[in-house]
């Protein structure tokens, strides 16, 4: 009998030649009602309440239930599922037993059976008891939103580091959900009389998972230490690190390739990039910087993933500049940007110097595209069409303080070929003149280069 964690990690990988799994989507739209809203208020009380509401700080943009269900649809497709139906339940509050209520669950079970669905995907996290209660009624596999995202991560992790981090997140998700699955987890099984062996097997599984979690945590800690050593070596040289962050499928990898001439995977599927990549980029000032491509964020990113990928996301925490890549063509751009800011806050990187890069402007109508204007915090680009990349590089150059540049005048003997070659390769030269065996230059020179040519600086 396959373990539950094995089934989880392989859920998004159908064997060759097999049909796609048929998925039925279930969404939930609920808004808590305050007690005062249920009562009839006097005009004075209503006026006071209106003033209080109007004085509140505006909340961050929120996804509607329909938009959230649409995102679940994209996640399911990225996992390799075929969508055969969906349903959206509106409630005042989630049902503690089945999330969507018994009546709606019966209706959903019938609809899913009619569509020959293999599994139900809930756009909401389910408790262990809710998952069991729903499975008893629908007689199909039930997967919640977090489990679906974990499946996609497991499918896309290619490096050993990525696989370790995904497995840790999966096991931390599974562990609290083992309770109450004694008979199911038992190797003996069989009905009456199997409760004891079932519980014994459950405890065995718990011990195995705890032991595996400790092993994975140690392996990831080793990765973190190696990264810290590599970062320490990098930081001994004045080279800044720039971290690309953004909502999944915002075009980070495409922009990364456009800036660094790398060849990382570009895909319209969600979470196509899991494994971090670091490449060098030459800025207009001729300074070098390192650009780090990171995993995409998403609404309600599972905390187990944030914790497991903390070794990878340390690149964001230690970066000199964060490039927040946003999909300018998405109608949900504001909501997605708010979710990215929330994850950055959770990582302790909310106060990092940040530049908002509105990507995919080539997908906007011409009139809207022509009306776009860059400002101190925002640059508009199209990574795929190479629009606005020069402006972006200039803005990055201005934002970085590592190996700061200064504009100087130099008078260097022509025989100093090594110094002249260094300036040509690592400085932005504005003017050059030859006089009496000397080369007179006006250039923007990084501090690391100025140290080598300071004898010839004249102003």
Structural descriptors:
459 residues, Rossmann fold, 6-stranded mixed beta sheet, disordered N terminus
How does this model look, in words?
With 459 residues, the protein is α/β, with parallel strands linked by helices. The chain folds into 4 domains: 4-50 and 60-156, GTPase HflX, N-terminal domain (Rossmann fold, 3-Layer(aba) Sandwich); 161-222; 237-399, Rossmann fold, CATH 3.40.50; 405-456, no CATH class. The chain is built from 18 helices and 13 strands. It has helices at 4-10, 35-38, 43-55, 65-78, 102-114, 128-138, 145-156, 160-174, 182-185, 195-235, 252-260, 303-308, 310-317, 333-346, 366-370, 389-399, 417-426, 447-453; strands spanning 22-30, 82-91, 119-122, 141-143, 240-246, 277-282, 288-293, 321-327, 354-359, 378-380, 405-413, 428-435, 438-446. The chain has a 6-stranded mixed beta sheet, sandwiched between helices. β9, α15 and β10 form a beta-alpha-beta unit. α1 (4-10) packs across α8 (160-174). It is elongated, with a radius of gyration of 28 Å. The model is unreliable at 1-16, 33-41, 45-58 and 182-199 (pLDDT under 50).
């Amino acid at each position: 009998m396959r373990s539950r964690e094995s089934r989880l990690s392989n859920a998004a990988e159908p064997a060759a030649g097999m049909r796609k799994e048929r998925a039925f989507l279930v969404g939930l739209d609920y808004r808590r009602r305050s007690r005062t809203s249920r009562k009839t208020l006097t005009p004075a009380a209503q006026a006071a309440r209106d003033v209080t509401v109007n004085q509140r700080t505006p909340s961050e943009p929120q996804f509607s239930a329909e938009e959230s269900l649409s995102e679940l649809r994209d996640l399911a497709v990225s996992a390799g599922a075929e969508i055969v139906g969906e349903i959206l339940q509106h409630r005042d509050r989630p049902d503690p037993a089945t999330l969507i209520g018994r009546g709606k669950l019966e209706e959903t079970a019938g609809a899913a059976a009619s569509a020959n669905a293999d599994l139900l995907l809930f756009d909401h996290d389910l408790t262990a008891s809710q998952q069991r209660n729903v499975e008893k009624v629908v007689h199909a596999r039930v997967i919640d939103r977090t489990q679906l995202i974990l499946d996609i991560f497991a499918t896309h992790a290619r490096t050993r580091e990525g696989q370790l981090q995904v497995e840790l997140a999966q096991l931390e998700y599974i562990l609290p959900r083992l309770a109450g699955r004694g008979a199911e987890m038992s190797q003996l099984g069989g009905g009456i009389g199997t409760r004891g062996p079932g519980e014994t097997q459950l405890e065995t599984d718990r011990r195995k998972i705890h032991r595996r979690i400790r092993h994975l945590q140690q392996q990831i800690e080793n990765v973190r230490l190696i990264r810290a050593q590599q970062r320490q070596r990098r930081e001994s040289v004045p080279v800044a690190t720039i971290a690309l962050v953004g909502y999944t499928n915002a075009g980070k990898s495409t922009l990364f390739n456009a800036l660094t001439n790398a060849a990382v995977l570009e895909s319209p599927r969600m979470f196509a990039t899991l494994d971090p990549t670091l490449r060098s980029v030459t800025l207009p000032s001729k300074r070098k910087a390192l650009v780090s491509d990171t995993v995409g964020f998403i609404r309600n990113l599972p905390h187990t993933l944030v914790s497991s990928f903390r070794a990878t996301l340390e690149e964001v925490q230690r970066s000199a500049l964060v490039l927040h890549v946003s999909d300018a063509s998405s109608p949900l751009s504001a909501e997605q940007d708010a979710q990215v800011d929330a994850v950055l806050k959770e990582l302790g990187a909310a106060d990092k110097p940040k530049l908002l890069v509105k990507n995919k402007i080539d997908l906007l109508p011409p009139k809207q595209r022509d009306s776009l204007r860059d400002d101190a915090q925002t640059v508009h680009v199209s990574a795929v069409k190479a629009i606005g990349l020069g402006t972006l590089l200039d803005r990055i150059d201005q934002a970085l303080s590592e190996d700061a540049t200064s504009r100087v005048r130099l008078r260097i003997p022509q025989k100093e070929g090594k110094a002249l070659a260094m300036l040509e390769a690592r400085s932005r030269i504005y003017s050059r003149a030859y006089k009496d065996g000397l080369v007179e230059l006006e250039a923007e020179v990084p501090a690391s280069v100025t140290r080598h040519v300071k004898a010839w600086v004249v102003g």
